[in-house]
Amino acid sequence: MSEEPLVNPEVLEMVGDWRGYVEAKLGFRNHWYPIRFSSELNEGALLVVELLGEKLLLKRIDGKVYAMRDRCLHRGVPLSRKPDCYTKDTITCWYHGYTYRFQTGELANILAVPDSRLCGRRKIQTYPCEEAKGLIFVFLGDEHEVHPLSKDVPPGFLDEDLMVLGKHRVVDSNWRLGCENGFDALHIFIHKDSTLRHFREFNFPIGHTPLPGAVTCIEEEDGPKGVEDDFSKHHPIWDGEIDGQIVVKGPKFDPKKGTSASIGTSIWLPGVLKVESFPVPGITQFEWYVPLDEGRHLYVQTLGQACTTDEERSDFANKFETHWKPHGLDGFNADDIWAREVTQPFYDDDYGWVDEMLCEPDSTILEWRRLAARHGRGIQTKKDLR
Amino acid sequence: MSEEPLVNPEVLEMVGDWRGYVEAKLGFRNHWYPIRFSSELNEGALLVVELLGEKLLLKRIDGKVYAMRDRCLHRGVPLSRKPDCYTKDTITCWYHGYTYRFQTGELANILAVPDSRLCGRRKIQTYPCEEAKGLIFVFLGDEHEVHPLSKDVPPGFLDEDLMVLGKHRVVDSNWRLGCENGFDALHIFIHKDSTLRHFREFNFPIGHTPLPGAVTCIEEEDGPKGVEDDFSKHHPIWDGEIDGQIVVKGPKFDPKKGTSASIGTSIWLPGVLKVESFPVPGITQFEWYVPLDEGRHLYVQTLGQACTTDEERSDFANKFETHWKPHGLDGFNADDIWAREVTQPFYDDDYGWVDEMLCEPDSTILEWRRLAARHGRGIQTKKDLR
Amino acid sequence: MSEEPLVNPEVLEMVGDWRGYVEAKLGFRNHWYPIRFSSELNEGALLVVELLGEKLLLKRIDGKVYAMRDRCLHRGVPLSRKPDCYTKDTITCWYHGYTYRFQTGELANILAVPDSRLCGRRKIQTYPCEEAKGLIFVFLGDEHEVHPLSKDVPPGFLDEDLMVLGKHRVVDSNWRLGCENGFDALHIFIHKDSTLRHFREFNFPIGHTPLPGAVTCIEEEDGPKGVEDDFSKHHPIWDGEIDGQIVVKGPKFDPKKGTSASIGTSIWLPGVLKVESFPVPGITQFEWYVPLDEGRHLYVQTLGQACTTDEERSDFANKFETHWKPHGLDGFNADDIWAREVTQPFYDDDYGWVDEMLCEPDSTILEWRRLAARHGRGIQTKKDLR
Ligand code: FES
Ligand code: FES
Ligand code: FES
Ligand SMILES: [Fe+2]
Ligand SMILES: [Fe+2]
Ligand SMILES: [Fe+2]
Ligand SMILES: [Mg+2]
Ligand SMILES: [Mg+2]
Ligand SMILES: [Mg+2]
Ligand SMILES: [Mg+2]
Ligand SMILES: [Mg+2]
């Protein structure tokens, strides 16, 4: 029984300018993460969630969402195991009556020790919450570090007329394998049999390589930090050859725009992908890889479409249920989920970060690793979990 | 593969005068522990039990109980996996015939190597056993350290006219969380809905805090070592208030004696609680938290009542089956078992001992930790398990 | 997360002249191991196997068997999870199209990056394969270290007229406990109730001890390295006595030859036992304990009989199915499998190698440990698994 380092120190010595990314096995602290849809938390209800290795209690009080560490200060038990909410604003620990205020985390009272010197002097950890586009975001970090939500979502996501629909599920891989699977231009090879192609005319090369100028790092002071990859500046490959023989072909319908199903992707801190014109022109896929613990992330998949009338909104909602959810988020992305989970064992002991053998188009992934190491606002550590 | 310390060394550096208690994750060596009821081991029968991380074989021979390490000296296999008992006094290992005498542990013979230099010169570990009040006690320690059983049980437990009945079950928490749950004056908050209150008139404050003079350390040279907590010298709280509003009330029937259901508790080395006048005046609950391994203890629950006639004994046995076992040992204490198991994860990595945030009434628990560190006769270590 | 040593360093310091054997927890590298029967791999088929902790892909191409590491160089995924074999000689990784040639391991192509500088310049690990006596052998080691198969099988196994039949199954113990169980003259105690004795007249002492001259180390430069134990030079014990009373007797039918069911055994690197005249004179049992990982081995059990005519071959095949497989390999050896699995926990943390208490006849096992430490061609390490 001793404190094992979270990341293999031998590996940390071997990586160069993206060491901070390898350290961030539990995610980057001091960022906003979407953790549930607003519709999942009714007034007065409680939810237990995980985020960057911490267990949190969410409660909606008078419409506003609050997040509190789900662990009693006294002897460390989860408050949620038997939630005693005697008043709207407080939760009382079932074991010895420590009572906390949701809005501030203040230890308001110990029911049987009302005069305790601790009352009013101690706080349980709370985290700021915001709701946007139907998602509940939690700022997992320290209060004095809070940044505007707009700095942690891809450009366009907060656009007023954007209607956002989605779903989430737990994936058994580290969150970084989610980011890299999504942003990886070469991985479209796994989607070659997707049923999604029956719902539109796809350009589907077996892979494509960025040419000079395709990749741009976005690092403006007041905006989100990310890497953009423009598929119109990629060199696509349509036929796969082995020993001079064509063994696999990618379907090609639309010669006009881009080289792929999408026209470009971008990946943003703290781990969110934007896929433009996907699954169909006019729609953008935004998806988050939210760190739950070392080996799991919450895959929050959303589609956004600009809608200005009720009819447009109703049409999008309908099409989402009948087309894009079953054939896109469920069908197409099932390949991605499976690929991330199968990749996980190689990176489990951290050696994967130095034993991998990247090829030329993986330069985009390296840009992302470096950018994340430069701009991540803090590394979540084992100490943060104590 | 290397020898992990049993307890986090960083934590050991941080605790002060009860370091030995934190070290005793596997229990205190050189003490007597009850491990089964006498009625569970018939003449000639074998039982496999665990104690402080060691696997033991118990056998009753001519009425007397013997305990032997259940691991062959030769190549470490459990003798119990295929017990070959060719004579009353011996057990022969099923693998290569090493034969041990229960009374002494002597390697009496190797069946196919009768002239081995090892025969008569090696011993398997055995431990002294005694029976008292219907329980089989094992002295888990070194023979030259054996102390009288009376030094390891609470005062009164061996009284001649005391009739003792009970049960045992395995609880998934470290033994110390058992001790601390039982001796904790504030934890009665969890029992507020117990069905036991329908069988007597309970005084049940939501908690109570010891006043000066309530707590006494008992450390006489020739007796058991423990901490007594006198509830008549406690300040009880009957109404729990949040923001000026009473949110929970404790029932109060009997203003005359004590402040709680019991009139006082005491906790004794090596981990046994005495609850006076409980579940009803005239009965005493004695309960042991016997270390099995780092994360489990055997919860040995007993009730003792002074009986001098057969009729009294029969009445007590009847009342035990119909009232105190179902509503006390099963019902009431089920809350305690659950609380210990839910607390375990916080202390699993030992940081709980320094990260906890105790309040004023927990001073009784601190007294116990210090007393245990002062008087525990030895720390069970990983080396003892090899 | 850090690199735990494979073997407890404290233990390595304590063992003397067979330290290399204790280090070889994952087996000896640079040796030939049988991994499947030839009949289990048809032309064009793929098999996934484990060997010394590595996952391998086997494929038969134009009759010849090839073995390749089942882990893509790119990002470490198992190729076998979705095998894309577009041509007879290659396998393409399902994730990004890295394409490997089975015969050489060469990275022949990356389907969507045909111009990658990596193509033709990188190799995935492959291992030489040979087939003999109906078994597929893999040389788990470095190509420049390859030795003739004849140096890694017991004498006689490759004899031209020897017909070999067998089976294999996974056993949950380290491979060394397999070797030591098989070569251990004293362990026949566990077979005393075998049904095999109904199929022949067995000499079955309860154990026997080698006399001077029984044990010979075979270490000729160009042959296999092993230890032979001649049972005709053993002192058998027929009656087991405790306190002067005979408690168990071994059946004795044939006073003429040897002292046991077999007339002698030998154990050879890299972990294969030869049992002469067993299960019946005229047949030899050859059995391998092939390391799969730290805690499991593949038990490859074979019987060999000299056959020169089709009738002899057919008779042997028939007798194998009706007698020797059910009563020998299944029945008799089931005791051995069980014993190895029950012994495993004692050696799991490596302390068993120094905590065991060997007796006189175990000198044969010590000879084997020393010989293996002298002649093992390499230790498989955790680094080899990365
Ligand atoms: S553990 Fe929460 S009040 Fe004691
Ligand atoms: S392991 Fe018990 S006699 Fe060999
Ligand atoms: S992981 Fe195999 S090609 Fe990428
Ligand atoms: Fe994808
Ligand atoms: Fe209790
Ligand atoms: Fe055997
Ligand atoms: Mg902790
Ligand atoms: Mg000791
Ligand atoms: Mg051991
Ligand atoms: Mg090596
Ligand atoms: Mg690896």
Please, could you describe this protein's structure?
The structure is a homotrimer of 386-residue chains. The first copy, chain A, is of the alpha+beta class and 386 residues long. Chain A folds into two domains: 31-130, Single Sheet (N-terminal domain of TfIIb); 147-385, Naphthalene 1,2-dioxygenase Alpha Subunit, Chain A, domain 1 (Alpha-Beta Complex), CATH 3.90.380.10. Helix content of chain A is 21%, strand content 31%. Chain A has helices at residues 9-14, 19-23, 175-183, 310-348, 352-355, 363-375, 382-385, and strands at 31-37, 46-51, 54-61, 64-69, 90-92, 98-101, 107-110, 126-127, 129-132, 135-140, 162-171, 207-210, 215-218, 226-230, 234-237, 239-242, 245-249, 264-268, 272-276, 283-293, 296-306. In chain A, the strands form six sheets. Chain A has a seven-stranded antiparallel beta sheet with strand order 11-21-20-19-18-14-13. Chain A is globular, with a radius of gyration of 23 Å. Chains in contact: A-B, A-C, B-C. The A-C interface holds A 4-10, 25, 184, 186-187, 189-190, 205-209, 237, 240-243, 245, 247-248, 339, 342-343, 345-347, 349-352, 355-361 and C 1-3, 71, 73-78, 81, 86-87, 89-90, 92, 94-99, 108-114, 116-118, 122, 386. The complex binds FE2/S2 (inorganic) cluster (FES) (3 copies), fe (ii) ion (3 copies) and magnesium ion (MG) (5 copies). The site of one fe (ii) ion (FE2) has 3 residues of chain C, from loops. Chains A, B, C: One of its GO terms (molecular function) is metal ion binding.
